[in-house]
From TrEMBL:
InterPro entries attached to this UniProt entry: Oat_ACAT_DAG_ARE
Presence of the UniProt keyword Transit peptide in the record: no
Parts of the chain that traverse the membrane: 6-25, 91-109, 139-161
Subcellular location as annotated: Endoplasmic reticulum membrane
Protein name: O-acyltransferase
Membrane topology type: Multi-pass membrane protein
Organism: Aegilops tauschii subsp. strangulata
Keyword line: Acyltransferase, Endoplasmic reticulum, Membrane, Transferase, Transmembrane, Transmembrane helix
A GO MF term: diacylglycerol O-acyltransferase activity
Classification of source organism: Eukaryota, Viridiplantae, Streptophyta, Embryophyta, Tracheophyta
Keyword Transferase: yes
GO biological process: one example: triglyceride biosynthetic process
GO cellular component: chloroplast envelope; endoplasmic reticulum membrane
């Protein structure tokens, strides 16, 4: 049902916007308090940085809302220019992998779902068979979605905005412990 998908997408975007606005407000509140008090704190910027701090502008909010990060800073590392050839290559890869996702859904997932019986009408064995038949296409679909969003889309957005910090995820798949997975994936 398209209403479920669009509702999920809107909820996802609303959560991102909320997190970004909270980060923007908290960071600017802390900066304002530091500027007013003039106190020196361990994590506080140096006096040279304090002199360069300005009140937040609409432009800084708009840039932050578009930037591929949830943590607001008054300034971000920026690249010198947009690499057009690299950007076109990433867009082409994004389109290819989006097509692969559509192919997986239409050719593998939809036929299994349409041809399966209702889980409560069939036996437990039929439900288990359907889940097992869906597992492999779903794994490939999730891998493509991860690659498209966390690698291609965020790098495309970062390149267009000349955003310098491109470490959107660490190698969580090489983790040895659960704690390491939590650290590297967030």
């Amino acid at each position: 049902d398209s209403a479920v998908v669009s509702g999920f997408l809107l909820m996802f975007i609303a959560c991102i916007v909320w997190l970004k606005l909270v980060s923007f407000a908290h960071t600017n509140h802390d900066i304002r308090q530091l500027t007013i008090s003039g106190k020196k704190v361990d994590n506080a910027p140096s006096t040279a940085d304090m002199d360069n701090l300005q009140a937040p502008t609409l432009g800084s909010l708009i840039y932050f809302m578009m930037a591929p990060t949830l943590c607001y800073q008054p300034s971000y590392p920026r690249t010198e220019n947009v690499r057009k050839g690299w950007l076109i290559r990433q867009i082409i890869l994004y389109l290819i992998f989006t097509g692969i996702q559509g192919f997986i859904i239409e050719q593998y997932i939809n036929p299994i779902v349409v041809n399966s019986q209702h889980p409560l009408k069939g036996g437990l064995l039929n439900a288990v068979e359907t889940v097992l038949r869906l597992s492999l296409p779903n794994v490939y679909l999730w891998l493509c979605m991860f690659y498209c969003f966390f690698h291609l889309w965020l790098n495309i957005l970062a390149e267009i905005l000349r955003f310098g910090d491109r470490e959107f995820y660490k190698d969580w798949w090489n983790a040895k412990t659960i704690d390491e997975v939590k650290y590297k994936s967030s």
